[in-house]
Every structure is written in C-alpha cells, then in structure tokens.
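Milestone M4 deliverable, item 7.
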Amino acid sequence: MPKITVDGKTIECKDKQVILEACKDNGIQIPHYCYHPGLSVVASCRICLVEVEGVPKLVPACQTPIRDGMVVNTNSPKAVANQKQVMEYLLTSHPLDCPVCDQAGECYLQDYSYEYGRAEPRFEEEKVKNPKKDVGDNILLYSDRCIMCTRCVRFTREVSGTSELFVDGRGAREEIQIFPGRPLNNPLAGNVVDICPVGALLDKNFLFKQRVWLLKSTPSISPVDAGGENIWVDHNEGKIYRCRPRYNADVNQWWISDETRYAWKAVSDGNRLVAAKKAQYSSQVETDWQKAADQAYTDLKNLAADSPGTLYALLSPMMACEEAYLLGKLIRSLDPQAVLVIGPVPQGEQQVFRNSITGKETFVIQGEKVPNANGVRKVIELLGGPSATYEELVKAEKPELKKLKGGWIVGGYLKDWVGKEQPALFKKGYRAVQDILPNSLVNSADVVIPGAAWTEKDGCWVNFKGIAQVFSKAVPAPEGVVSEAEVYHYLLRLPGAYSAAAVRAEIGEPVSAAKIPDADAPEPAMEFVEL
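Output delivered:
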C-alpha cells in the first residue's frame, strides 16, 4: 500500500485514493464543502486546498490523487491562509440567522467558521439578499444561505437523473434555480436536503420543528418496500421528527426514497389503534391487551379442539421475522395442522434511476411494497406444515383451506390493506386481529389487539436480495399498545422478557447473524479516476 506523509505523520493509503479521503481514513480532517463521495468531483469550494511538496501552488485535496512518498501539509501558513480567506468570502453574503435556521447544529459553515475562520469579519458592505424559493412539494430553497457547492445540482443530474436544478447567473448573482415547469418533485428529491452542507435546502416537514442537538438517532430500516433502505429515525421525547439515510454500501449507499423519508407519518397518524377490544353482544367493547389475548387464545383453542386443521395464521409481510416465527409457533401449539398464510404483498412499479450523463444505474426503488415478504416466506418454510398465499386464501380452492374456521390475522400495513376482495373467512370465521390502523376487518373482528409500528419495536427484516437487517426501537408505543412479539411471548408462556436477538438465534441463518452495523464504520472513499 502506498504511504504519504501528512503534517509530519506517515499514513498508509489505498490505491487510487485522493488526499482528502486518505486523510479522512486516518483521522486527519480537511475541511470541504463541494466534495461528496457519491457525486462527481468539481473542486469548486477551494477550502480543501493543501500544500504538496514539489508543487508550486496549493492543490485541491478532493481532486488530487495520492502517490507513494508524497508529502502533504494541511496546516502550513499558505493552506491556513487559504482556509481563512475562503471562509471569509463565503460569509460575506451569508445571513447571520443561525438562531432560526434548521441546519444549526449540523452546519458545515458553523463548524468551519469556528475551526478555520477569522475571529473578526472585515466585510462592511451590504450583504446580497435573495428571496426564499419554493422549489418542490417538500423542499424550500433559502438562496441567500447557499454557498454554491452545487451538490444538489450534481445529485439531480448524476443520481436521480432528472436534472431539475441548475446554476443561474455568475459571480455575486449566481444562484440555484429550477427549470420552469419542473419542480423538484422526483422520488429521491429529499436527498438534496441531506447533502446540503448549509441551511440552503430545507425540508418543509421539519421546518422549525426541533433543534437537531435535542434529537436522538436510532438505526432502522425502511418499511415501505423490499429494498431495505437503511435509515436513521430522529426523535425526541417519544415523537418522531424525521428520517434520514444511513449509509450501507450493499443496499442504498447514501440515498433513500421520499416514500421512505416520510413513512414515519403513519406512526403519528391520529387514527392509530390504541385500545384492545373484544366482541360482546354484536358490538366491540374495550378491554386490556392481556385479557383480549387470553380470550383469543381460548376461543381458537376451543375451535381446534375437536377438528385439527381448522385454524390459520395470517403472517403479514410487515411483521419482523421474530414475530412471524413466534406467531407460527403459537398457532401450531393450538392446532398442529394450522395453515400459515403470508399476507398480501402489494406490487407497484419498480423505478430505476440513472446518471443522466453516463446512463449508469444509480438507485432502484423496488416494486414490492412491503419490507419482509422474503423473511416471512423463509419463516413459513422453516416451520413447515400446511401453508398458502393470500391469493389462495381468497379463492379457498385448496381442500385444507375449505375447512378453516378461524385464525389469527396480523396487518401492520401503513395504509388500508383489506380492500374489497377479501377472504370469506374475514367475514364469517373467527378473527383475532392485530393491526395499527382501523379498517373494515378491525371493525368486525372478534378480538382486536392494537399492534406496534416498526419504530416502536426491535426486529429483523429480509430484503429482496436476501440480506437480513436489524432495526431498533426508537420511540415507545402509545399507551395501551404492545408489540406483536410480546403478545406471543406472553401466550406461549416463555420465560423472562422478550428478546428479539434470542428469537433470531433460535430461527437460525440468515437472520441469526444479522446485527446493526457499527455507526462509526467509515464510508468508502471515492477513488480517483481519469475522466
């Protein structure tokens, strides 16, 4: 491996690395604005200029490839003077509105101004002021905060491939614009907010809602499709405020879809089910979840006592693998010949995004609009015995499906999933239902137990590639709500408290090896490539 010397310290580098990333990998920070490992290198912000021995001028660290034996100075008088000058230039027109800016607390300008800027500004003229712009359904552009790093422009050209943004004007009048009649509404648009290093591009849904230093971040997985996009769920005092991308080289890299970004809204839906109910005299009356669970257990046990093969469990593809496994064990403890049915798997159109310049595929939004169909299928296969798809349950043509009399049904979808075409069992058989939102099935069920959303429990999902990924509980469930797995743990009379990791170990591969990636693991460097 090549070695270079940085500020008197010898470090090892990867082949074809640039100075900036070689230093980053070795804990040496070089300030930068325009550079992003997922975008092309333009070297326009100039704050990363460093001094290289043998080169007469300062060179951009983000664009200069390392060579064995290179000597780099990041803190030389020339490099430090450049950093101060760049910061001074960027702040000549930047408004001092940090107290009301949503980027405060995670803003490169704030950090670098403290670390590399001048203590006193010398600019006395009037600042250039630009209007706030509504550039999309979810995004606002504060032009006077923009430092023209062009990350957002490059993203729309190189990742989403939709090219809504461009640079208009030059010099002091230079600003980001959208093309007339083409608002920034592509399915990946929200990523420009994440990559903006200052407070120029902001999410309307998060605007003035919370200070970022008050937020706690919990690693999680997207619930909207089979892609398994990795995310951070940011929350405070039991309330979710936003979701952000979490880097994963094998799944979503640095990006997430807008559908994933705003999936948390279903968790905060005012119509959430929060009270367990049981049927009584042709109506539903409220009860606590233990009594409702015991009632469902007793009724289903009595139903199967005289005739094996009369029960079924509908395992929702929104369930965690651990929950599906425990429910399968529970229903089979009542009826060894119970049918395990995978819930409906809604299909949409797969969306493929390409670099508008090279045509290279950059991101894919999967058409399978549930996160764990693959994992539930694996659990059903592991448990063995009679099984069926939801479509087969609707048709009820198989002999083992014709004699079913009742079952345990789990929903958990982020919107109404029952629809008009539903199994006859949903209308006349015995139904113990766990769900998070009301629907026609919930309103007519014999027993209803409110379920927990994915941000309110621990679990594991298997994406379309077969990659098992763990998500963690971010916020507590509403009062009266308990996770599905805890209900099964209670009814199976298992010892101790419920542990998702223990159930994963019992299930075996691939979910037993799944774990949350180290949050401090370094992202890969963008390798220098001759264009």
